[in-house]
Amino acid sequence: MARNFRIAPSILSANFAKLGDEVDNVLRAGADIVHFDVMDNHYVPNLTIGPLVCEALKKHGVTAPIDVHLMVKPVDRIIPDFAKAGATYITFHPEASEHVDRTIALIRECGCKPGLVFNPATPLDVLDYTLDKLNMVLLMSVNPGFGGQKFIPYVLDKARKVRQMIDDRGLNVSLEIDGGVGPANILEVAKAGVDTFVAGSAVFGAAKDSDPNRYDTVIGALRAELAKA
Prior knowledge:
By secondary structure, the chain is an alpha/beta fold. It has one domain: TIM Barrel (Alpha-Beta Barrel). Helices cover 34% and strands 17% of the residues. The chain has an 8-stranded parallel beta sheet. Strand 4, helix 4 (100-109) and strand 5 form a beta-alpha-beta unit. Helix 2 (51-60) packs parallel to helix 3. It is globular and about 45 Å long. The protein starts with 5 loop residues before the first strand and ends with a helix. The mean pLDDT is 94.
């Protein structure tokens, strides 16, 4: 089945002193989605960004979908804030919610598209009961908390399983992957059934800031690989 592949650079790897320009440049170069990695120094060992950054980018003029990955626990408190700030997708880890169905419903009530996130070693069992309520499934191909980690290969088996579940049920659910994805492996990942690719270090760390064409080059390389799928 032909898929509409989407590239979602993670701003975790961007230059925060020039964040609006950074996001403008990757979108101009052909990125589709702006990916937010929200960490709370509790669920994961790092502290990153909150709703104010999302709101600032919307006010800056960003109209592309904003994909907010919440690595926070508890999760329900912050969802309305990100929805108000302009999030399109809000994804969360099932183990960060006491009541997964309720959290999914809260995201929808706030006007956003819900998704579940699975760490590399987290079982997929909850999808048996929730997949038809989701717009996105995000598979972590690194353990969350830091950018720049190496891809964990066994996550490809999980991707194949989720793709089979989505297709068997005839659902329109995006399958996203996050961690260690770049031109060298994006084709293999796509062949496993993934359609949305988070790339942080591979995009924002591709070249020196002084190279005005660096995003065109790396996103072009990612697209060229995906064209082979």
